[in-house]
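Z., the sequence and structure:
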Amino acid sequence: MPNVLSEPVRAFLDRSRVAHLATADRGGRPHVVPLCFARDQDRLYFVVDEKPKAPGKTLKRLRNIAENPAVALLVDRYDDADWTRLEYALVHGRAEVVGDAGEFARALGLLRARYPQYQKMRLEPERNALVRIVPSAVHHWRWR
């Protein structure tokens, strides 16, 4: 897999805590949600965690990914007092629910290392979808 994420983008993603995931259904209707994420080389991961969700319903982001795996992930930094600190990375790629147990465990370990809240949650492949995003293009912008 070729490296799509430059070292500055990797560093920016690693120090950022929240991303916004854009998906679209097969008709192109957009859907955007904030989420926690982790990076492993050029792959990005998120898990459907134990925070309250609508009971008995598959999340819209997962339905969209099943219909249309093309996604965009936006990570940004805003500073109201100092616009020279503005920065964002817009990652385009393909998303897929992870089915491999080893990859699930590895990615979940990365997520738990970044977000201590996940350490207390019961997150298992049978109950919690974990999604891999493989980037195909990145637009990175910063003031300097």
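The radius of gyration is 15 Å. The domain at 7-142 is CATH 2.30.110.10 (Pnp Oxidase; Chain A).

Let me know what you think.
H.
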